[in-house]
Structure formats: C-alpha cells, structure tokens
C-alpha cells in the first residue's frame, strides 16, 4: 500500500487532519510530518497573543501518524481484499510534553510498534521539532472499530 493511499484512507478531513507526509513505513513503525498552519482554529484562544499548539492536538497528531497510519498499513491485506474498511481508534495514551509547538512549525513523528494482536495496536511514539528537539513522547494504544 502506498503512503498516498494510506493518507487518503484516513478517517479525517481538514481542519482535523494532521498528516502531511509519510516519509517511511513498514511493519515495525512509521515516520511522518505535519506543519501546523498559523490560521488553525485552535490558535484563536490558546493562548491570547501567544499562540501555542494545544497538547491534545499534539497527541492527536502523534496518534494519526503513529497509530492510525501504521494500523492501516498493518491491515492493508484486509483492505486490499475488499474487506470493509477498518478504523483504528485511540483507546489509551500516556504522553509527556517537553517543548511548545508554535504556528507554522513543522514536526516529525516517529512511531515504533510494541505489538499488534487481537485487533489492538500499541506504539511508542515521539514528536520532534525542526531542530530535532524532543517535543513530546509517549505510549499510544488503539483498537480496530468496525462500523
């Protein structure tokens, strides 16, 4: 499955799609990027006159790239055989934050699969900024939710 097809299959759209590019993906993990546009809705009030990307949005970005994109890749055989499109939903996360992310900042997310079994995917995920500084990291788990 191509990286373009994975992005096209994501169950999100703007303004809640936080994946620009998948740089690398295989059965063990994924690396992808996203740049937060300065006109994003969540900057309007977070924080007044000093916009910072909310932690929940950073976590969502890590989940979309590090969990959902990887989950789609791992389930690609089922998707390609015509099986109903599965959706990976986040069920738990434990994230630590170290640096703020500002408008127009590009981040790089890397995810390493811990396990994928019985429809549940668990990953170690980290986000780095353009200076390769660690922004946040954590463990994110998801499971297949069929419509």
CATH class: Alpha Beta
Helix-strand sequence = HEEHHEEEE
Helix percentage range: 10-25%
Beta strand count: 6
- What number is the mean pLDDT? 93
For the largest beta-sheet, the strand count, sense and barrel status come to: 6 strands, antiparallel
Total helical elements: 3
**Straight-line N-to-C gap:** 22 Å
CATH architecture: Roll
Shape: globular
Please indicate the count of domains. 1
Q: Which fold name fills CATH's third level, the topology?
A: Thiol Ester Dehydrase, Chain A
Low-confidence blocks of residues: none
Alpha-carbon Rg, integer: 15 Å
How much of the sequence lies in strands comes to 35-45%
Protein structure class: alpha+beta
CATH superfamily: Hotdog Thioesterase
**Lateral strand order in the biggest sheet:** 1-2-4-5-6-3
Q: Describe it for me?
A:
There is one protein chain. The protein is built from three helices and six strands; from the N terminus they run H-E-E-H-H-E-E-E-E. The protein has 147 residues and is α+β, with helices and mostly antiparallel strands. It has a single domain, classed as Thiol Ester Dehydrase, Chain A (Roll), CATH 3.10.129. It has a six-stranded antiparallel β-sheet with strand order 1-2-4-5-6-3, with helices on one face. The mean pLDDT is 93.
């Amino acid at each position: 499955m191509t990286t373009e097809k994975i992005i096209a299959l994501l169950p999100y759209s703007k303004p809640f799609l936080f994946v620009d590019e998948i740089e690398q993906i295989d059965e063990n993990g994924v690396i992808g990027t996203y740049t937060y546009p300065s006109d994003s809705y969540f900057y309007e009030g977070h924080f007044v006159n000093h916009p910072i990307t909310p932690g929940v949005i950073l976590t969502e970005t890590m989940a979309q790239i590090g969990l959902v994109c990887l989950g789609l890749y791992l389930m690609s055989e089922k998707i390609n055989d015509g099986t109903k499109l599965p959706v990976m939903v986040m069920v738990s996360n434990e994230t630590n934050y170290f640096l703020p992310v500002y408008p127009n900042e590009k981040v790089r997310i890397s995810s390493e699969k811990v396990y994928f079994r019985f429809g549940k995917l668990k990953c170690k995920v980290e986000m780095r900024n353009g200076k390769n500084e660690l922004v946040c990291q954590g463990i994110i788990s998801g499971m297949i939710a069929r419509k």
